[in-house]
Design goal:
alpha/beta, Rossmann fold, 6-stranded mixed beta sheet, 9 helices, 10 strands, 24% strand, globular, binds adenosine-5'-triphosphate, transport, ABC transporter ATP-binding protein, ATP binding, nucleotide-binding
């Protein structure tokens, strides 16, 4: 059950096209979505439907052509300056010449003065929470892919952002490892509720983590359907085996297949 209190992310009528004028392709067409504070929302849809573009617009990495995004009531620029947005990319992007602890502390060290009055999380504590307590002095190259991705997630939490934007953070992992990382994130989030936008291709992942699942349609990218995930929280891996989980899986897969078939017409 969501503990939504006010809008964490408010996306209103966002449109975005790419390409030179005359041959522009509309990637997002009038997308509106609100993610409440403390709500976990996954975005799923056919390849190329604009999921990453929507996340990048929300993160302020690219500008929308039309529409607005507000984060905790502020413009994306202001929210980004105030470190309210945490971003976890597809690949961990850790600096190979710095230890894991240095990598996680790096955002704090970059501008100490600006961070002096911020509430910051303890990097060592975060790393321990994500099961990396014994790996702090190792270098990224000495860690498995899953451990590297957990370090990247820990790094995104150091500013204790109100909003977490995650773009397929586990896509490079094998299924077993992926499930382990997913459950580690779920555990952490269940006691540190943030507004989360989570892009994924995995139906079980979206169900296990989310309060709501946004199914996108392609060409142009738009919201086709929003599915409520009313499984009780806190959730554990036991939820996979329940009838409710399987019923939801059928609903989400059907919605996704419809959009995938339409995308190939
Ligand atoms: N900077 C860019 N310039 C031109 N086209 C772009 C740019 N970024 C994305 N696109 C195009 O926009 C469309 C949507 O891309 P996007 O990465 O948002 O989709 P996606 O749903 O995240 O895809 P996937 O599931 O395959 O990761 C694609 O056709 C892509 O080629």
């Amino acid at each position: 059950m969501a503990v939504a209190q006010g809008a964490g992310v408010e996306i209103r009528n966002v449109s975005k096209s790419f390409g030179p004028s005359g041959s522009q392709v509309t990637v997002l067409d009038g997308v509106s979505l609100t993610i409440g504070m403390g709500e976990f929302v996954s975005v799923i849809g056919p390849s190329g439907c604009g999921k990453s573009t929507l996340l990048k617009v929300t993160a302020g990495l690219i500008d929308a052509d039309l529409g607005t995004v507000t984060i905790d009531g502020e413009s994306v620029t202001a929210a980004s300056r105030d470190k309210k947005i945490g971003l976890v990319p597809q690949s961990p992007a850790l600096l190979p010449w710095r230890t894991v602890l240095d990598n996680v502390q790096l955002p704090l060290a970059v501008n100490k003065k600006a961070n002096s009055d911020r509430i910051l999380r303890d990097a060592k504590e975060l790393l321990s929470t994500f099961g990396l307590g014994n790996a702090m002095s190792k270098y990224p190259g000495q860690l498995s892919g899953g451990m590297q991705q957990r370090a990247a997630i820990a790094r995104a939490f150091v500013f204790d952002p109100a909003i977490m934007l995650m773009d397929e953070p586990f896509s490079a992992l094998d299924e077993m490892n992926r499930d382990l990382q997913r459950m580690a994130l779920l555990d952490f989030w269940q006691s540190n509720r943030k507004a989360v936008m989570f892009v994924t291709h995995s139906v079980p992942e979206a169900i296990m983590l989310s309060d709501r699942i946004v199914v996108m349609a392609a060409h142009p990218g738009r919201i086709a359907q929003i599915i409520d995930v009313d499984l009780p929280r806190p959730r554990t891996a036991d939820a996979y085996a329940t009838d409710e989980f399987r019923d939801l899986e059928a609903v989400v897969r059907t919605a996704l297949h419809t959009q995938m078939e339409d995308a190939h017409v």
